Amino acid sequence: MWRIEDSAELYGISCWGSGYFGISKNGNLTIATRRDGSHQIEIIDIVRKLNEMNLKPPFLLRFPQLLHERLKDMHSAFVHSINEFDYGGAYRSAFPVKVNQRREVIEGLLHPGLPLIFGLEVGSKPELLLAIPYQAQYDVHLVCNGCKDDAYITLALKTIKFNKNTIIVIDDVSEAKLIIDTAKELNVIPQIGIRTKLYSKGSGKWESSGGDNSKFGLNTTEILEVIKTLENNRMLSSLNMLHFHIGSQVTAVSHIQKAVKEAARIYAKLQRVGANIQYFNIGGGLGVNYDSSKTSSFSGTNYTLQEYANNVVSTLKSICDEENAPYPTIISESGRAIAAHHSMLIINISGRKNVKQYGEVTVNEKDSSIVHELHDCYRKINIRNYEECYHDAVYLKEKLINLFNLGKLGLEEKSKGETLFWKICQCVTSFASEEGNTSEQIQKLEKHLSNKYLGNFSIFQSIPDSWAINQLFPVLPIHRLNEKPTYKGTIVDLTCDSDGEINQFIDKTHTKELLELHQLNDEPYYLAITLIGAYQDTMGDCHNLFGTVNEVHIAQKNNDNWYITHIIPADTTANVLNNMKYETAGLLKTLNKALEREQTTETENFIKLYEKELGKPTYLHNCKACALQR
């Protein structure tokens, strides 16, 4: 009997789900907007409701309440650490806008009933322009990083004239004089931060972005030069933040501890020379468990949120006590950890590709000896000799191809030989599974024989990091989780690009190349790609002119009931073409002119069909060919 607990273990939900995801007794994937898992929403219910509303997949489901919950979790973890270690300072959270610039996300975080947010961190002038109105409305801080020109600094300083809190972080020595001169011209007292370039580095995929070769930040000599410049202009009192960042998705907690220790020493020494630093900004880096290994793999972390907070607070307190320095307010910019969980992509599987299914082969005396040898190999294979038979079959197949290339075999004989070879391979994987053989040879063969499930989506549009940096995202069915999956395969998208494939999946303790899925039938089959709330929304492209998907915002009441708060329709083909500078009116005009000599009913109907399809979403709707692949 297959249980929902088996599916939970198979797909690693207990680790990456972080208490928000689960499986209902009906075998459906659930999400809860509270970590305790109470009041769960069955995702399949949302999909069915959307189908009733005549909306078609793929769907991007967004749960803004999870943004609030993640902020609360982070705040609670640091408050617990502050109390446990008797730390005399406070903790606040800033959201780095680059992680997700979508209006729905920013406004969700700045909800007036959620006063936990310290402010927004911006890394460019366009992001500053985005953030300034929110600063004016909600009175939050702005932390200004990134490359800065005169206009950037002028805008940031002018917000101070309106009694707003804006901290300009110096990333380059040349910025110090520009900030000072502009502040004098505007007659404002600036708030200044220094981004330090630590020797300590992060761990994982972004390890190289930290350390001595970091793109941003000041080394010790440059920090002292900035301090001297501020002193000479009587503005040292304006320095109120020390900032550092050792890279995104830090996988090992020891690297966090080392970085905090080094930065804390710098903070204490700056206090001694007269700087009145109030904020100790540890930047981002808090990792998300995308896999189920609970190790420092590229897609995981070997620590919990509470361990992270404990290491930051205890290390900083220890150094402050040694140096007799005041306890600063700790600021973190853990955008990935805040945003990742709140959205998921729901795709429907349209069919299977490259499925090797062969009937029986009839061999007669006219067939070549090589065909007979392969047939004999197929007849004698069993659980005791399957590996030996496989090696023989590989040799015989090579011989078969050589004979065909020399003109000594016909197409029918080649077909028989190839069919027998693949039937032997299927027997090999079956016997290996029965015996528990997971050797590298068997795994390679299993992958070669696997299905390719055609998903109705574009990797490049919806989960670009999967393609660009091999980011692992948890993928699993949203229903039938009380049934044992009997097939294995990879997920391919609609693009005509060989990179449009997901071939890394979560296993119980590590990653694997094949995903366990169910037999397709006449009913729709849906998969969820989860934890995509960080970076994916604004980095996607229109490869093959696939546009955005239908986006749906869901809110949960204080029970299992939920409701739709907002729907953003998918891009139509016309939308995407307009973005590519094709005016649809111009396309229609060109088509009409080209076909004006053939004014028939068929021509008119074709133009009407063309115009109708321009107004539809870019993804598959009804695909009869796909249905045949099931």
From TrEMBL:
<feature type="modified residue" description="N6-(pyridoxal phosphate)lysine">
    <location>
        <position position="98"/>
    </location>
</feature>
<dbReference type="GO" id="GO:0008792">
    <property type="term" value="F:arginine decarboxylase activity"/>
</dbReference>
<feature type="domain" description="Orn/DAP/Arg decarboxylase 2 N-terminal">
    <location>
        <begin position="86"/>
        <end position="340"/>
    </location>
</feature>
<keyword id="KW-0460">Magnesium</keyword>
<feature type="active site" description="Proton donor">
    <location>
        <position position="496"/>
    </location>
</feature>
<keyword id="KW-0479">Metal-binding</keyword>
<dbReference type="GO" id="GO:0008295">
    <property type="term" value="P:spermidine biosynthetic process"/>
</dbReference>
<keyword id="KW-0456">Lyase</keyword>
<feature type="domain" description="Arginine decarboxylase helical bundle">
    <location>
        <begin position="365"/>
        <end position="445"/>
    </location>
</feature>
<dbReference type="InterPro" id="IPR040634">
    <property type="entry name" value="Arg_decarb_HB"/>
</dbReference>
<comment type="similarity">
    <text>Belongs to the Orn/Lys/Arg decarboxylase class-II family. SpeA subfamily.</text>
</comment>
<dbReference type="InterPro" id="IPR029066">
    <property type="entry name" value="PLP-binding_barrel"/>
</dbReference>
<dbReference type="GO" id="GO:0046872">
    <property type="term" value="F:metal ion binding"/>
</dbReference>
<keyword id="KW-0620">Polyamine biosynthesis</keyword>
<dbReference type="Pfam" id="PF02784">
    <property type="entry name" value="Orn_Arg_deC_N"/>
</dbReference>
<keyword id="KW-0745">Spermidine biosynthesis</keyword>
<protein>
    <recommendedName>
        <fullName>Arginine decarboxylase</fullName>
        <ecNumber>4.1.1.19</ecNumber>
    </recommendedName>
</protein>
<dbReference type="Pfam" id="PF17810">
    <property type="entry name" value="Arg_decarb_HB"/>
</dbReference>
<dbReference type="InterPro" id="IPR000183">
    <property type="entry name" value="Orn/DAP/Arg_de-COase"/>
</dbReference>
<dbReference type="InterPro" id="IPR022657">
    <property type="entry name" value="De-COase2_CS"/>
</dbReference>
<comment type="function">
    <text>Catalyzes the biosynthesis of agmatine from arginine.</text>
</comment>
<keyword id="KW-0663">Pyridoxal phosphate</keyword>
<dbReference type="InterPro" id="IPR009006">
    <property type="entry name" value="Ala_racemase/Decarboxylase_C"/>
</dbReference>
<keyword id="KW-0210">Decarboxylase</keyword>
<dbReference type="InterPro" id="IPR022644">
    <property type="entry name" value="De-COase2_N"/>
</dbReference>
<dbReference type="InterPro" id="IPR002985">
    <property type="entry name" value="Arg_decrbxlase"/>
</dbReference>
<dbReference type="GO" id="GO:0006527">
    <property type="term" value="P:L-arginine catabolic process"/>
</dbReference>
<dbReference type="InterPro" id="IPR022653">
    <property type="entry name" value="De-COase2_pyr-phos_BS"/>
</dbReference>
